[in-house]
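Illustration 12: Vitamin B12-dependent ribonucleotide reductase.
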Amino acid sequence: MNSPQHPTTGSARVTLPWQEVSLDVLREKYAKGAERGLDGPDAVRAVRSRVARALAAVEDDPGAHEADFLRALEAGFIPGGRINAAAGTGIREVTLINCFVQPVGDSVSETVDGKPGIYIALREAAETMRRGGGVGYDFSAIRPRGARVHGTASAASGPISYMHVFDQSCATVESAGARRGAQMGVLRADHPDILEFVGAKRQAGRLNNFNISVGVPDALMRAVEADGEFDLVHKAEPGPAQIAAGARQREDGVWVYATIRARELWSAIMRSTYEAAEPGVLFLDRINGENNLHYCETIEATNPCGEIPIPDHGCCCLGSMDLTRFVTDPFTPDAAFEHARFAETVAIAVRMLDNVLTTTVWPLPEQAREAEAKRRIGLGFTGLGDALILMGLRYDTTAARAEAAEIARTMRDAAYRASVALAREKGAFPLFDAEPYLASGMASRLPDDIRAEIRAHGMRNSHLLSIAPTGTISLAFADNASNGIEPAYSWFYTRKKREADGSMREYRVEDHAWRLWRAKGGDPAALPPAFVNALEISARDHMLMQAAIQPMIDAAISKTVNVPEDYPFEDFETLYLEAWHAGLKGITTYRPNSVLGSVLSVEAAEAPQDLDQSEPDRRIRISDAPQVALAALRWPHRPKLTDGSPSWTYMVEAPERRFAVFVGHVENGSRHPFEVWVNGEQTPRGLAALAKNLSMDMRAQDPAWLALKLESLAKTPGAPFTMPMPPDGRPVPVQGAVSAFARVVEYRCRALGVFDGDDDATPLVDAMFSRKEPKSGVDGTLSWTVDILNPTTGDDFAMFVKECVLPDGTKRPFSVWLSGAYPLEFNGLTRSLSLDMRVIDPAWIGKKLRGLKDLPEAQGDFFARVPGSEKQAVQPSTIAYVARLLIHRYEMLGVLDAAGFPRAGSARLWTDAPAPGSAPAQIAGRTCPECGHPTLIRRDGCDFCTACGHVGACG
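Figure caption equivalent — predicted structure in token form:
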């Protein structure tokens, strides 16, 4: 790992060794086949060579252009993630385009006003995501809730109801490259359902696969400033009740559903954004007024990150310039930006992105036609924050904004000149019309000589510029230079990463400018004044940097304006008004707060109960609680073993029951079991769920915990019988099927040496607030009880949950059991869950319950009330319903959220204090897919986990 990674920064060249994170991300995201086996410099060179060759193949002289393209890539041009991952791989089903916008019309299955019906749009979106593209939609065409549906003489359910259908489709369809699709949902601020839309994500578990933004017209902003009224309108006819309530039709044929005070609507949008980080705001009139193609298209939505406002079937073909590669003499008085070399590289990058449009596979023919008609591309930059540091400019100063604007101007002019040159060589885009094109807000600001060239020769590309978030490409190709337009978030942080065998590894991720400062002999304890990170910059200065650059960008800019938790709400509202006045096309903010990590909806009061609950709250009190288990999970999820894994099988023969037990293990220095499952037509109900639960225990780094579990299960009563025990068939009495199962698993684990180690560490056992079940005195204790009836299987029983009070006052379940008619093997699962409940970290029981809440049973599904709701729905199985009810109880106690994840402030498996100068303390957010903690925030336009350093989707 000592090979050079970033050898061309400044005139006095400094070679930096490769960071582990860069090689990891390169191999995981972008390198293919043999490229993965190379070291850092060779691997990145191989990826660049593959991309250069693929994009040059459509040229008349591929060889000459391939050399130019490779030089541009090595000079600092980084194509978008899809291009690096797929160009030249021969995978013909995968698109090179990151994102699209797809139309959605006001019909279920027909095309209306040129927009496909909802389920046609759903199919097209699924096909797009399957091939690797994210999708944005404007749902404003869909008629409001309650509007009249003439064809069926019914009332419409509204756009938000259909958004849930798109959300579930996105959760199901896996995009190319094994990632879930990203989506942006937009609704106009004047849509009658706008208030429902604004709060649509305030309830946990809803629209998780969407970013949402409100399309705000200037009319609303003017009405807000004037404290005027604002009409909520739609062309669809209201229902009778809405007409009776005052809905009226205007002279232009549009229906006014309601007239409200503009400031009340604006305050609702702002309050949701302030408290829950969504919705974002898109200034639609600014977007369309600036649009180069204002004469032939209307933009209603953006891609999932918001940096590309695009029309129906439009795409974003992205790439970024690493600005740090063009700074000479960093950290000296002579530091400067090489504008000429930068412009030369920009010109080549434009040609490369134009070739992407010719090279790529298109998910839909409509997307191909749209791209060919306009040839839209989006070249931007990354590393702005670090480049300014190298030049001694503090991000939040007037001088830094002026330099950033000048860099953006150089990029704009070079890109437009390059597109004119391409038009002379290959032809202008088909919808080019010189005079209206040059009359657009953006093109009117171009230098006169470029405007003259455009008038004479046309443009190859309708749009050229966009600044996108660059999370993983910055890590892989730019030595973790600051992301996109953003300043650095922190100078270094500890990254916790799972290896292929499931083990945990930690390493430090360092900011490029900080590394270069140290490499040039700088004292990391005495950083120059230019070293200022994102959280040290005021919200207004974040916004002003975006405003300084936007006039040079013909699309838009993805930027996160970080505001502190104690930022006054009045100032927050003012920030958005300033952004509108400053000419921004949209604005996204992130304010960390405790709400983001918890259920965001306000639950209605509980319905009256038949039980008299006036008695004092009698719960067992725990006088002392242990510390949290640290990194107790070796493999929270089943490791993906591409070459398979060995397993051991044993047939259990009980009276009238015969089933096989399988124990799988990995061989990584030593053999370690990581999963157990059961199979057979006569397998007792409930054993499959128990095996799933026990598999996670196997993947813990605590043999004593596994031994405790197996010992408890071996004592589970049932229908006793005698079974032959391995290895010699010696007959052994067991108490039932669960007991037999546990004895077999314990035998195999012992044979694999699980309990032979010298390590005395028992993180899970030590993290139990009570190893034995707490017992009440003669006065008794309260328990939570719920009745469960599954008519399909005949299960009819009560579930009891006993609870205690921890030293901090938190109420926690510590035991669950059943009484009534049910398979006795269910007792094994409740015994196992009771032990899980007594681990102090609620992430543990949450993980166990999430693994069971969707567990199906053949011919065992049934209809029952949704926990926490008056609605009824199909439940996958009795066990799944038990898990869902337990999650609901934890939610009622404020321990887990409705999805089964720990609420903000709960104890966590990882509580490592950050090293001095590293990333800030953990910040409440969404659940991280890597570590499971509610600490996933939006940083620089991308998902970032403040607990483990995971960098996720951008958008």
